[in-house]
Design brief:
Largest interface: B-D, 32 and 32 residues
CATH architecture of chain A: 2-Layer Sandwich
Helix content of chain B: over 70%
Shape of chain A: elongated
Distance between the termini of chain A: 17 Å
Number of strands of chain A: 6
Largest sheet of chain A: 4 strands, antiparallel
Bound molecules: adenosine monophosphate, sodium ion
Number of domains of chain B: 1
Number of domains of chain A: 1
Strand content of chain B: under 5%
Oligomer: heterohexamer
Order of helices and strands of chain A: EHEEEEHE
Radius of gyration of chain A: 15 Å
C-alpha cells in the first residue's frame, strides 16, 4: 500500500477555545481535523473531570490534525496564536498516511 | 431572629436542600457517586426551559407594566456595579492578583440561575408570590458583569484580551441566556393555554429534577472544595460569605425602590447575592486566561453557593418578611 | 382558505412549534445553545416508545380490521413509489448527480417520525381522532424507500454497493423501527391496563419532551442550513417545498381510498409529505457513499422538515377538514 | 401451582416485563437499538433515588422497630454466607477455576437492585405491602458478599489483591449505595410532606422509566449472552437457575424468622435470589483481575437476571402467598 | 523495561462503518483494537459535530490498533477495503509497546 | 517554532483503575496527563462497548501522557505497577512538543 509522510499534530486545548482553534487551523490552510472529547486530566492548573459538570468553562478537547510536512509550520503558528495565552499542550509525531490526496 | 431560625430549619429539611447536602457529604466521604455530564447538562436545560416558561406565563397572566422595564434596567445596573464592589472588597480582604480579583468580580456580578430557581421553588412552597418577569431580570443580569470585569482588568493595567465580535456574541447569545429568554417569550405568547399543555412536564416534576440537579451540584461543589482546600486563605473565606450579604443588601434596596412584591424583593436579593458558575466562568476563561479558574470557582460554587442555599435564602426571605409584612 | 390561515396561526402559537422556532432562531444568531447527543438520543427513544405504545393501546381499544393490513400495504407501496417521483422531480428541477438524486429520493420516500408525532400531538390537541395503527404504518414506511433508492442508483448505471445480509438486517431491524413496533406490540398486548400503569410517564409529559426535542431539532436544522447555504440552488428549494405537497396529495388519495378517519388521512398525508433524517440517511451512507450527505440532509431536515412543521401540517389538516367534514 | 402459573402469566403481560423481553428480542435479531451510556446511567440514578426515597418515607410513616435492625443484620449475614454456598455449588457443578468461582460467588451474594425494584413495583401493582426499610436491607447486602469472595480467593491459596483503604472506601461508599441510603434518609427525614413535594417526579413516572431501563437491560443481557454463548457449559446453566432458588429459600427462611410482612418476605427472597451486575463486578475487577469478567456477567446478567424477572419473582410471590395467606 | 516495536494505526471512519471495519480487522488477524468516540471534525465533506444529533448517519469514530510490524500490511488491506469508498483517514506511527505477548 | 523531544505514552486501561493509575503517574513525577473516553474495543478478553451500560465494571479509558524522555522510565514503572495484573495496553511514540517548560 502506498503511504505518504505526514505529521500528526495533537492539540489539547480548553473546550471554550475549540472554535477559535479550528477557525485558525482552517485559516492556515489545513484541510481537515478531528475533535476527540476529553473526560479529564491534570496539569499545572490542577486536576479536573467533566463528570457532572454543566459549565462549559472547564474541560478540554483534543484536536487531531494530519498534515503534509510542509504545512506543519503554518499550522503550528496558527495553533500557537490561539493556545498561547491559554492552558493546553501540543505534540507532533511523524506519521504515514494513506490517500495523500486528502491532505 | 426566631423567625429566621424557623425558616432556616424548615428550609434545611426540604428534600431539595437535603439532596444538595447529600451531594456534599458524598463528595466528602469520597464516594464515586457521579452524574454523567450529559445528564447534568440535560437537567440544566430542562430547568432553564421550565423556569423561563413559567416566568413568561406569569407575565401573560398578570399583565406587565413599567416596572418590568425598570426592573430590567435595575438588574443590568446592579450587574455592572456589583463587580466593582466585589473587586474592592476582595482586594482589601486578600492578596489575590488584579487579574484574579477581576475574574472573581465578574462571577459575583453575574448570577447563579440554580440559586435563583431554588429560591423560586422555596418561595412557591411557602406561598409567597413573585413577579414572573424576575426570570427576565435574571437573564439580563448574566452578562453585564462580564463587561465590568474586563474593564477592571484593563483599567488596572493588565492586558485583558480585548473582546472581539465573536466574544460578544458568545456572551450575549450564550446558551443559557437564549434558552431562558426564549422559553420566557414562548410562555408569554402561549400563556395559560400553553402552560396547560405542558405543565405535567415543566411544573409537576420540576422539584424532583431540582433535587437530583442539586445533588449533582453538591457533588461538584464538594469535590471542588476538597481539591482546592490549599488556596483558601481566611480573607477569601470572609469574602465568600460577606459578598453575598453585601449583594443581598443592594438587592433589597433595589427591590424596595422598584416596589416589587415580597417574593420579587427576595428574588432580587438572591440574584445579587449569588455568583455565577456556568456562564461567567466561560467568558472569564476566554477573556482573562491568566486568572486562576480554580479560585473563582471555589469561591462561587464551593462557598457562596452552599452558603446561599442553606443560610442565605431563608435569611433573605425572613428579612423581606420582617420589612414588608409588618 | 380562511380556515387554513386560522389553523396555521393556531399551530404557530403552540409551544411545540414555538420551541422549534426558538431552536431555528438560536442557530441563526449563532448561539452556542446545544443539547448533548445522549440527551437528544434519549428523548428520541422516549418519544418513539411513547408513540408506539399509545398506538398499540389505540388498536387494543378499538379493535382491528382489514383496514390495518390494507393501510400497511398502502404505506409500503407509497414508500416504494414516492422515491421514483422524488427522483424524477429532482432531476427535472436541478442538476444533481444520479447518485445524489437517488439518495435524496430515498429520504423522501421514507418518513420523518418527528413530523409524524408532532402532527399526532396537534391532532389530539384539536380533538381529531386517528387510527392507532397509523404508528405501524409509519414504521412500515421507513425501509421500503431505501430499496427504491438503491434500485434507482443501480438502474441508472452507477454502482451502488449491493446490500448484503448485514445491510438488510441493519435496515429492517433498525433501532427506531424495532422500538416503534416493539412498543406498539406491548401497547396492544397490555392495552388500557398497561397504559394506566405508565401513562404518567408516556402521556402527561409527552408534549413537554416534544418541545425540548423540537428545540434541539430546530438547532440542528438551523445550523445545517447555515452551513450548507452554499449548495442551495433555486431548483433544490422548489423541490424541498413541492415534494411534500406532491407526497401529501398521494397520501390524501390513499387515505381516502382506504376509508381512514379524518385524523388517519391527515397522518397519511404527513407520512407521505415528510422526509427521513434519522434512519434513511444512515442506510444511504452505507449503500451510496458517493452521494453527498449534506445535500439530502439540508433538503429533508433543513427545508422540508420546517416547512411541514410550520405550514404543512395545518395545511394537510385543513384539507382533510374541507373534504371530510362538509 | 395454578396460582403460580396465573401470577407468572399476569407478570409476563406487564409492560415492565414485556419491555425487558423486547430488549432481549432486539438483541437477538441483532438490531442496533441502543441507549446512550449517559441515559442508562441517568435512569439508574433516578431509580435508585426514587426507590430509596420512597423506602424512607415508608419508614417515616409506619415508624420503625427492632425489626429494622434485625433485618439489616440478617441481610448482612446472608450476603456473607450466600457466596460460600454459591462457591460450593458452582465448583461442584462445573470446572471453573477457584478465582472465577470466587468472583461469581461475590456476584451472587450481593444483590441486583434492578430485580429488587422490579419486584417492588410488581408487589405494589398487586396491592401487596412491604416494609419501607427493605431498601436499606438491599443497600446493606451490596457489599458484604465482596468480603466473602475475597476471603474465598485468599483461602484457596490464590493471591487476591489485598484490599487497601482505597478499595474499602470504594466498596462502602460506592455510588449506588450512597445514593440509595442517602435518598432513604432524606425520605425518612422529610416523610410524607417531602414525598408530596416530589411525588410527581419519583412516584408517577417511575414505572415508565423502569420500562425503558429494563428495555436497556434486556439489550445488554441479550447481547452479553450472544457474545458469550461459547463459555456456557451445562453445569453453568444449572448453576444460574438453581442458585437463585437456593438463595430464595434462604431468604424465605430469614424473612419468616424475622416476622416480615408478606411483601417483605418476598423482597427478602428476591434479594437473596438476585445477583449483582453493577457494584460487585467493579469490586471484583479491582480485587480479582485474573477472574474472567464475562463469566460472572453472563451468569448474573445474562441468565439469573432474566430468570428472576420472568419466572422467579412470580414464583417467590406465589410461595409467600401460599405460606402466609393460608 | 522491555519494549517491542509495533505500529500504531489510527483509523478515523464513519460511525456507521465501525462494525464493518472491526469485523474486517479481526478477519485480518488483529488481536485487539480500541474505539474512541469523536465529537466533531472537518474535512472535504464539510464540518460536523455530534452535539444534539440523533441520527447515526453523521459522525465518525477513531479506531486505534496496535500491531506487530509484520501484521501491518494485512491490517491496512483489510481496513482499506472498508474505508475505500467511504470518507475517513488512516495514519500509521511507529510505536513501542510493553507486553508483546498481547499483539 | 522551537520544539522539544518528548515521549507520548498512551495507556489504555480499565476505567475502574483510572484513579489508581493517575495517582501512580503523579507519584512518579509526571506533571500532567489527559484522559480520553473509550467507547468500545476488543482484545483477548473479548469485545465490549459502553452503549447502554450502567456498571463501571466494564469499559476502558485512554490516558495520554507527554513526558521528557528522561522521565519515561519512571513513568513506565509506575504505570506498569498498576496495569500489570489488569487488562490494558501501553504504547510509546516519539513526539515533539512546544512549550517544554510544561513537562
Ligand atoms: N504532560 C502532559 N501530558 C498530557 N496532557 C497534559 C500534560 N500536561 C497538561 N496536559 C493537559 O492539559 C491540561 C492543562 O494543562 P496545564 O496547563 O498544565 O494545567 C491538563 O488538564 C491536561 O489535560
Ligand atoms: N487532515 C485531517 N486530519 C485529521 N482528521 C481529518 C483530516 N481530514 C479529514 N479528517 C477527518 O475525517 C472526516 C472526513 O473527512 P473528509 O472525507 O475529508 O470529509 C473529517 O470530518 C475529519 O473528522
Ligand atoms: N492491539 C491492540 N490495539 C489497541 N487496543 C487494544 C489492543 N489489544 C487490546 N486493546 C485494548 O485493550 C482492551 C483489553 O485488551 P485485552 O486485555 O487483550 O482483552 C481491549 O478491549 C482494547 O480496548
Ligand atoms: Na450576583
Ligand atoms: Na415521505
Ligand atoms: Na443475592
Amino acid at each position: 500500500m502506498e503511504m505518504h509522510k505526514a505529521k500528526r499534530v495533537e492539540i489539547i486545548i480548553e473546550a471554550i477555545m475549540e472554535r477559535r482553534l479550528t477557525d485558525a487551523l482552517i485559516g492556515s490552510g489545513v484541510t481537515g481535523y478531528t475533535v476527540l472529547p476529553v473526560s479529564g486530566g491534570s496539569g499545572r492548573s490542577g486536576q479536573w473531570t467533566r463528570e457532572g459538570q454543566v459549565s462549559p468553562a472547564s474541560g478540554m478537547v483534543s484536536v487531531i490534525c494530519l498534515v503534509r510536512p510542509e504545512r506543519l509550520d503554518g499550522l503550528l503558528h496558527a495553533a500557537f496564536s490561539v493556545v498561547e495565552r491559554h492552558i493546553g499542550v501540543i505534540d507532533i509525531t511523524d506519521a504515514l498516511v494513506l490517500r495523500a490526496e486528502r491532505f | 431572629m426566631n423567625e429566621i431560625l424557623t425558616l432556616a430549619r424548615e428550609n434545611l429539611i426540604s428534600p431539595i436542600i437535603l439532596s444538595f447536602v447529600l451531594g456534599l457529604l458524598a463528595a466528602w466521604v469520597r464516594s464515586d457517586l457521579s452524574f454523567p455530564e450529559a445528564i447534568a447538562r440535560g437537567m440544566a436545560l430542562y430547568l432553564l426551559f421550565a423556569i423561563g416558561f413559567k416566568g413568561g406565563v406569569g407575565v401573560a397572566a398578570h399583565g406587565t407594566d413599567a416596572r418590568l422595564a425598570a426592573a430590567l434596567l435595575a438588574g443590568i445596573a446592579l450587574s455592572l456595579v456589583l463587580p466593582l464592589l466585589a473587586f474592592a472588597l476582595l482586594r482589601s480582604l486578600s492578596q489575590v492578583s488584579i487579574m484574579d480579583a477581576a475574574a472573581v468580580a465578574g462571577h459575583y456580578g453575574s448570577i447563579s440561575i440554580v440559586t435563583f430557581l431554588t429560591a423560586s421553588t422555596l418561595l412557591t412552597e411557602r406561598g409567597v408570590a413573585a413577579e414572573g418577569y424576575m426570570v427576565a431580570v435574571a437573564a439580563a443580569m448574566e452578562a453585564p458583569a462580564i463587561l465590568s470585569a474586563l474593564w477592571l482588568a484593563a483599567w488596572r493595567g493588565e492586558g485583558a484580551e480585548k473582546p472581539d465580535a465573536k466574544a460578544w456574541r458568545e456572551v450575549l447569545f450564550n446558551g443559557s441566556i437564549v434558552l431562558l429568554v426564549g422559553a420566557f417569550v414562548i410562555g408569554w405568547i402561549t400563556g395559560k393555554d400553553g402552560l396547560a399543555q405542558i405543565d405535567s412536564f415543566i411544573v409537576s416534576p420540576f422539584k424532583g429534577v431540582l433535587c437530583l440537579f442539586l445533588l449533582d451540584m453538591g457533588l461538584i461543589a464538594g469535590r471542588g472544595l476538597l481539591n482546592s482546600r490549599g488556596i483558601l486563605r481566611p480573607g477569601l473565606l470572609v469574602f465568600a460569605f460577606l459578598m453575598p450579604l453585601v449583594g443581598a443588601m443592594l438587592g433589597l434596596a433595589a427591590g424596595l425602590a422598584l416596589g416589587l412584591s415580597q417574593g420579587g424583593v427576595a428574588l432580587m436579593m438572591v440574584l445579587c447575592a449569588s455568583a455565577s458558575y456556568i456562564a461567567a466562568p466561560a467568558a472569564m476563561r476566554v477573556a482573562l486566561p491568566q486568572a486562576n479558574p480554580a479560585l473563582s470557582l471555589t469561591l462561587s460554587l464551593g462557598l457562596t453557593f452552599p452558603f446561599n442555599l442553606i443560610f442565605g435564602i431563608p435569611l433573605y426571605l425572613a428579612l423581606t418578611e420582617l420589612i414588608m409584612r409588618p
